[in-house]
């Protein structure tokens, strides 16, 4: 059962990634149907690619409102004949009024080698009409009283559900080593490998929720508000140009760089020790996961000392009981960034020399300012032609090709733009910790 659950979660993640719809969340459990209008408590993280938590509540938007209403629902074909394989990625034909151009999308399928062809349906609530019906209406006080939210949480409801029109078969070949990066090796030098561990096929019944979309709501002084904003469509996501992807990346990098700045205020000796401990953590996956969990708990207002001595040492260096929330968030952000980078790259970046990091920093600054980075003529050894970080630096120069890379992208976790963002933030964060004694 756990094996089937893992395969289901891996496949739904690959489907969502292939569709390119940033507003969809993959379903991780086949038993969860995420019915429309179900209320959901969302715990956000300010960090890129971090684990946002979604908890279904035992009531719906209908239960919350002290008035009767009839939501308008729409069922439409999202993609016809959608299929995926590790070799060919995902493809299908857009349906339901979406541009009839052929979708040809690549996907790293994690632990899934292929998925049989199926039409994907979308069931949606007309949010604009719903907001006209419900905005400014009073909510039931007894229902609201049962919903507790902290400062990092908000309330939402299920506005969209994507499901399969017929049964779907997922298959996985015998256990083998698979390169984590596929054609991405042309752009960045990564040494990590992963093993597929699922050895059987799995059949998903028809009408199973593959993914869902949420809509945030506000309740103030007992009155409901459903804010209306523009959500990019599937076609818009696919047609983004390299320049548009870069603009969004630069905005995110600039915003999150501010969150990292408190690291610069630490004493030089503390920064050096923090960096050395982080390097050791990057070599120990279990310890790094413990540290991430501990820092998540700290963000929620409670924590237990991690069993890993390395993770505990990192927390001691921060002196969490006295550290400002801004410093805790900065350290949390840096850990999350390093963990999000592809295998092999975090250790290489965190241990590179000061002059190598300064070249990276100059390239990132040029990218933010001019939208283009270039390799300087004089390069430290790791960035020279056969150096271990050459391709990572070269990737920063390929911003004019972000959309082109998307078509053949096979890396399981990151889109090209996502990788650009975390790579730049890693450089900026490590630059704040790096000291001259580390050179």
Tell me what the structure shows.
The protein is built from 15 helices and 14 strands. With 439 residues, it is an alpha+beta fold. It has 2 domains: 2-180 and 197-237, no CATH class; 242-438, no CATH class. Strands 1, 2, 3, 4, 5, 6, 7, 8, 9, 12, 13 and 14 form a 12-stranded antiparallel β-sheet that branches. It is globular and about 65 Å long. Keywords: Cell membrane, Cytoplasm, Lipoprotein, Membrane, Necrosis, Palmitate, Transmembrane, Transmembrane beta strand. Pfam families: Gasdermin, Gasdermin_C. InterPro entries: Gasdermin_pore, Gasdermin_PUB, GSDME. Belongs to the gasdermin family. Residues 260-380 form the Gasdermin PUB domain.
Counting DSSP H or I runs of 4 or more residues, the number of helices is 15
Tell me the series of helices and strands, N- to C-terminal. Answer: HEEEHEEEEHHEEEEEEEHHHHHHHHHHH
What is the count of β-strands?
14
Shape: globular
The oligomeric status of these chains comes to: single chain
Distance separating the two termini? 50 Å
Provide the domain count.
2
Structural class: alpha+beta
The fraction of residues in strands falls at 15-25%
Question: How much helix is in the residues?
Answer: 25-40%
- Show unreliable segments: 96-111, 174-199
Pfam families: Gasdermin, Gasdermin_C
GO cellular component, one term: plasma membrane
Membrane topology: Multi-pass membrane protein
Subcellular location: Cell membrane; Cytoplasm
Task: Give a quick precis of the structure.
With 439 residues, the protein is α+β, with helices and mostly antiparallel strands. It contains 15 helices and 14 strands.
């Amino acid at each position: 059962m756990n094996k089937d659950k893992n395969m289901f979660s891996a496949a739904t993640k690959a489907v969502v990634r292939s569709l390119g719809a940033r507003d969809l969340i993959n379903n991780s459990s086949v038993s969860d149907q995420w019915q429309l209008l179900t209320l959901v408590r969302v715990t956000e993280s300010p960090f890129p690619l971090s684990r946002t938590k979604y908890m279904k509540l035992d009531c719906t938007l209908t239960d919350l409102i002290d008035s009767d209403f009839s939501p308008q629902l729409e069922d439409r074909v999202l993609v016809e004949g959608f299929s995926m394989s590790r070799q060919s990625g995902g493809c299908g034909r857009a349906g339901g009024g979406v541009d009839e151009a052929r979708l040809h999308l690549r996907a790293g399928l994690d632990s899934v080698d292929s998925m049989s062809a199926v039409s994907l349906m979308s069931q949606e609530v007309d949010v604009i009409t719903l907001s006209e019906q419900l905005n400014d209406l009073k909510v039931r006080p007894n229902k609201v009283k049962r919903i507790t939210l902290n400062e990092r949480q908000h309330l939402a409801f299920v506005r969209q559900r994507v499901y399969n029109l017929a049964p779907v078969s997922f298959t996985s070949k015998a256990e083998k080593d698979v390169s984590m990066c596929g054609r991405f090796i042309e752009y960045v030098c990564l040494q990590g490998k992963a093993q597929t561990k699922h050895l059987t096929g799995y059949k998903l019944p028809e009408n199973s929720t593959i993914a869902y979309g949420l809509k945030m709501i506000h309740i103030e002084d007992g009155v409901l508000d459903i804010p209306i904003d523009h959500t990019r469509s599937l076609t818009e996501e696919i047609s983004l140009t390299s320049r548009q992807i870069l603009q969004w990346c630069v905005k995110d990098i600039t915003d999150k760089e501010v969150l990292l700045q408190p690291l610069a205020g630490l004493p030089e000796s503390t920064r050096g020790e923090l960096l050395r401990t982080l390097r050791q953590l990057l070599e120990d996956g279990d310890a790094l996961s413990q540290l991430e969990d501990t820092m998540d708990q700290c963000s929620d207002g409670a924590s237990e000392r991690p069993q890993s001595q390395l993770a505990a040492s990192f927390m001691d260096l921060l002196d969490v009981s006295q550290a400002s929330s801004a410093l805790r968030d900065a350290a949390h952000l840096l850990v999350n960034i390093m963990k999000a980078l592809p295998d092999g790259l975090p250790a290489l970046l965190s241990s590179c020399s000061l002059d190598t990091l300064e070249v990276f920093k100059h390239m990132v600054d040029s990218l933010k300012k001019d939208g283009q980075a270039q390799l300087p003529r004089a390069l430290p050894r790791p960035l020279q032609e056969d150096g271990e970080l050459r391709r990572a630096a070269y990737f920063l120069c390929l911003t004019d090709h972000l959309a082109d890379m998307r078509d053949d992208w096979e890396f399981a976790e990151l889109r090209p733009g996502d990788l650009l963002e975390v790579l730049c933030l890693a450089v900026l964060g490590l630059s704040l910790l790096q000291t001259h004694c580390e050179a």
